[in-house]
Every structure is written in structure tokens, then in C-alpha cells.
Write a structure and sequence with these properties.
binds inosinic acid; single chain; six-stranded mixed beta sheet; Rossmann fold; alpha/beta; 3 helices; 10 strands; binds magnesium ion
Length: 177
């Protein structure tokens, strides 16, 4: 695999398509086991987790539902410092078994600010499944129930993750050179 250029920066191959698919498939097997007969509702956090959520969902063999929310910490060009829900949930989650899928836990701020919105609606159970976790960058402690890869504190793109809007379309994950 070759390096890629996204905007002005170069990124080098880090996790191959095969490695990612193998981990996502393993995670789906665990979920097939853990959620058998409970009809979980997956909540995919947009934009970053769209590919991960899609692949994970395709490997499930149990009855499961999926819905989407869109979060952003920016309004216009300025960070508000707070997480805004720009597309909310359109489904009643009270009493449901919820699995949130996120692309990456970096500082942990996004998920920490968003979780109360879910907890307030009293789901029966709530678990977090992430593709990537940067333990060295995490400031807000997050209980991650399912994680595909723990990675060093370096910026990555691909497989749904972007650098300023670009780079989401790659099947592999690339690390800043
Ligand atoms: P957190 O709130 O700091 O945990 O991270 C929130 C969001 O920042 C993630 O959902 C990603 O959209 C973005 N992010 C964090 N690290 C990276 C990265 O290495 N590449 C691309 N996006 C990232
Ligand atoms: Mg992003």
C-alpha cells in the first residue's frame, strides 16, 4: 500500500482492509453471542462511524435494529466547546438494549457529553462499541465495552475517518506521516 495525500498532509498505511475486517467480524461474533434474543438497537454516531457501523451490522446474524444520530462540536467555524446534536434520535429507546457505535474515542469528550441524552431515556442496557481508541489521548474517562483497536496518539484517516472532510473513502486506515 502507498502513502496518500489528504489536503496538504501525507498519511502512511497503518491498518489494512483485511486487519480491519477481521476485527470487525470478531466483534460482530461477540455481539451475536452477547445479544442473542435481546433485539439490540445499534445507535451509530455520524459521520465518522458510518463505515464501521455498516460493516459491523452486516456481520450480525441476530435480530437487531439500527438508527443514527449526528453530533458536532462546531457551529459555523467556531468550536462551541459543547457537543450539539444536529440530527437526533427518531426512535423510543426506553427499555431497549442499546449499543452505541463510534469511530474513535480520542479525548472522550464527545461521548461523555452525549451519553446523558441516552441515559435520560432509560434504556435497559447501554454499551459502547468503538473501532479505535487512543488511550494516551483520553482525558474524559469512558467505559468502552467493545473495542477493535487501541492505537497510539497519532492522527488517522480512512474507513470513515476524515481530515477536514476528506479521506473517509479509503478501505484501510492511514496514519499521519
Ligand atoms: P473525542 O471527543 O476527542 O473523543 O473525539 C471526537 C471526534 O474527533 C471523533 O469522533 C472523530 O470524529 C474525531 N477524531 C479524533 N481523533 C481523530 C483522528 O485521529 N482522525 C480523525 N478524526 C478524529
Ligand atoms: Mg471528524
Amino acid at each position: 500500500m502507498n502513502a496518500i495525500k489528504v489536503h496538504d498532509k501525507y498519511f502512511v498505511p497503518y491498518l489494512s482492509e483485511d486487519e480491519i475486517q477481521a476485527k470487525v467480524q470478531q466483534l460482530a461474533s461477540r455481539l451475536n453471542h452477547d445479544y442473542n434474543g435481546t433485539r439490540p438497537l445499534f445507535i451509530a454516531v455520524l459521520n465518522g462511524s458510518f463505515m464501521f457501523a455498516s460493516d459491523l451490522f452486516k456481520y450480525l446474524t441476530i435480530d437487531a435494529e439500527i438508527s443514527f444520530i449526528k453530533l458536532a462540536s462546531y457551529k459555523g467555524t467556531k468550536s462551541t466547546g459543547h457537543i450539539l446534536t444536529t440530527i437526533g434520535l427518531d426512535i423510543d429507546i426506553t427499555g431497549r438494549n442499546i449499543v452505541i457505535t463510534e469511530d474513535i474515542i480520542d479525548t472522550g469528550k464527545t461521548i461523555t457529553e452525549f451519553l446523558p441524552q441516552i441515559i435520560n431515556q432509560q434504556p435497559a442496557t447501554l454499551k459502547i462499541a468503538v473501532l479505535l481508541h487512543k488511550p494516551e489521548a483520553t482525558i474524559y474517562p469512558v467505559k468502552i465495552d467493545y473495542c477493535c483497536f487501541s492505537i497510539p496518539n497519532k492522527f488517522v484517516v480512512g474507513y470513515g475517518l476524515d481530515y477536514d472532510g476528506l479521506g473517509r473513502n479509503y478501505r484501510a486506515i492511514y496514519q499521519l506521516k
